[in-house]
Write the structure tokens for this entry.
Amino acid sequence: MTITELLDISCVLVPLEAADKLEAITKLVDLLHENGKLVDRDNVLQAVLEREQIRSTGIGEGLAVPHGKARGCDGLQLAIGKPAKPIDFGSKDGHPCEMIFLLTSPVNEMGPHIQALARISRIWLSPAFRRAAAGAENADELYAAIQEHQS
């Protein structure tokens, strides 16, 4: 599984206009919903926000990966946002978030969920990808950067 096998370009938002992590998460869940990727938008939003309350999904190095398992989706779904202005996600390293990968999956889909999280972490470890993502000015450019750097 590659990131672009999970990701529709219609679910990439550059720039993501949001003042805080709640607004950013809500906008990305709404983006999935607007593109027909969710069965129950409210259930998915609740699951992602509940997971965020347990522990921040601000990974560090400018990345946040809010995620949740919910009855509101019938398959693994991914939306990506590049905030217009960095957002505080409460990352351990104290750096604000410059890229958000929002992942949701059905409650019984553990393996693919973990694999997708690993793929996201792996691509973010690439300095070349982070440079390309930082320079992306629209969804097409960010999607192309993901295609080029995913493994």
In short: The first helix runs from residue 3 to 6. The mean pLDDT is 95.
